[in-house]
Design a protein that fits this description.
The structure holds two protein chains of two kinds. By secondary structure, chain A is an alpha+beta fold. Chain A is built from seven helices and 14 strands. A three-stranded antiparallel beta sheet of chain B has the order 2-3-4. The longest helix of chain B is centred in the middle third of the chain and has 16 residues, at 64-79. Classes of the chains: A alpha+beta, B alpha+beta. Chain A binds chain B through residues 72-73, 75-77, 79-81, 83-86, 215-217, 222, 224-231, 233-235, 237, and chain B through 37, 40-45, 77, 81-94, 119, 121-122, 124, 133-134, 137, 139, 141.
Amino acid sequence: MEEEYTALLGNQTWDLVPRPPGSNIVTGKWTWTHKRRADSTLERYKACWVLRGFTQRPGVDYDKTSSPVVKPATVRTVLSLALTRRWPMHQLDVKNAFLHGVLTKTVTAASRRGLLTLLVLTWCVGSTSLSTASSRPLRAWNHRFTTFLLTLGFVEAKSDTSLFIYHHGAETAYLLLYVDDIVLTASSESLLRWIITSLQQEFAMKDLGALHHFLGVTIEPHPAGLLLYQWHTLLIS
Amino acid sequence: MTDCKPCSTLVDTQGKLSEAGGTPVTHPTAYQNLAGALQYLTFIQPDITYAVQQICLHMHDPREPHLTALKRILCYLRDTIDFGLLLHRRSSSTELVVYTNTDWAGCPDTRRSTSGYAVLLGGNLPGRPSASRLSPTPVPRQSTTL
């Protein structure tokens, strides 16, 4: 919990302010969840501060709620291309993806007594000190990441907004984005390195090495190519 | 359904499901959840795409025959649980091959035609999965047109 809280502070997630008159207050709470690895085994227990979304008002606190998702056909096409051309495929993981987004709307959230012990900054008034929390959701993260990719020279694919293409001379790279899961493949090892390094300079990001899991699908090298399977998910359902 | 009798085919080739036949199912939400999960599964098992698409046509008002068809898919999955999708590195070409077929005026309710297609990239062979867990890499879709 402290780690998450430090991350929230490190990203300057909120400012404490007195209650703005006439504003809607969104309440929040801490939740405890199981963080699982890509293959669904338990990695660690994690605490998460969430805003209780149902206390928001449409049009005031938010307007659009969707975030682009990747099309299966795109994933298969990119994997197939990279495989045929024998390009290195890497998987990247973004830490606290949602905290990287910059929210354009201000959301005012109340901090309650339980949280206050941690939230003592400059404002600490009774049980409901208020913070103008920029809760930074999915959409905002997606926007920020996309914008950064464009500055690197990537172009968003026309057919699928989660596919980004980099063309420079003879060099090509494809990047697939699904929330905070990223698959990157490039025509050369050096280009791949350069992109990963550039991304890491901007975002807290882990290079998980050669692609092994994406969208709950296990991806394994096979003598004839690449094997995709989902037995784990099947057994659960 | 983990103990169900495995089934080697996933859909009845004779005729399509009609919209209004049979009694409404007792738990439409369960039907919708399962259909949604199956839709997700088509990502690596493109062979079930058509059957799942037929199931999804009746999401809004599932009837008993639709549920039977859905269970048939589950039985098929029981039999093919160790299938995966193999992307071949067989050739270096990135040739694009498209197969398409149409069932003319096949819908029992509207007499609309159903068309489907499979796109193959890079020389991956089309066809049904063999007895092992190898299967081709088609990108099938279903669409309905007049």
